């Protein structure tokens, strides 16, 4: 599959008609898994699945996300194993995501995540994060409880865990770092 519309705009038999709006809605759909495809971008058709809470788009060919703000109930998003190298203003693209998996990409900066205030769990393992200072962008996220950084060059720095947890100040005891 190359386009999300291949699923959301497939045969009319599987769609529910809603008067006064777009005639095709997936109102009962809450969990979508389109992993292991060749999706290169998220198109407008995702808006037809308004009630989606969990979306797995891992192992595709995404390098950016758009249109996900059209999913107001989205709380869990898996974007692992894609082609992300930069993240810009993710708060304007993801809305109120609580669980985010960006592992196995090519990220070197976490700055684009600095305003995802509802984020509770973040997996950025196996990326190219080299500097402890990149974690400072996450240290002001009030709901963040779980952070996974293993597999990044930063994890090889002497006393890496201590230095990362220091960035969280008083909240350090509330943070689960690398599943510990």
Automatic annotation (TrEMBL):
Transmembrane segments: none annotated. Pfam families: LRR_8. Gene3D superfamilies: Ribonuclease Inhibitor. GO terms for cellular component: cytoplasm. InterPro entries: Leu-rich_rpt, LRR_dom_sf. Keywords: Leucine-rich repeat, Repeat. PANTHER family: NISCHARIN, NISCHARIN RELATED. This is Nischarin.
């Amino acid at each position: 599959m190359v386009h999300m519309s291949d699923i959301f705009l497939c045969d009319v038999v599987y769609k529910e008609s809603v008067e006064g709006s777009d005639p095709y809605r997936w109102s009962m759909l809450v969990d979508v898994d389109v992993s292991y495809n060749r999706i290169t971008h998220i198109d407008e058709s995702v808006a037809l699945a308004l009630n989606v809470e969990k979306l797995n788009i891992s192992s595709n060919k995404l390098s950016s996300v758009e249109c996900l703000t059209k999913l107001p109930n989205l709380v869990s998003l898996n974007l692992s194993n894609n082609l992300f190298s930069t993240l810009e203003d993710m708060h304007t693209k993801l809305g109120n995501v609580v669980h985010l998996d960006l592992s196995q990409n090519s990220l070197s900066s976490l700055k684009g995540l600095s305003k995802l205030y509802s984020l509770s769990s973040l997996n950025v393992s196996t990326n190219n994060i080299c500097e402890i200072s990149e974690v400072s962008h996450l240290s002001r996220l009030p709901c963040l409880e779980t952070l996974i950084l293993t597999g990044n060059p930063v994890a090889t720095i002497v006393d890496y865990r201590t230095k990362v947890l220091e960035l969280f100040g008083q909240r350090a005891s509330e943070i689960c770092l690398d599943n510990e």
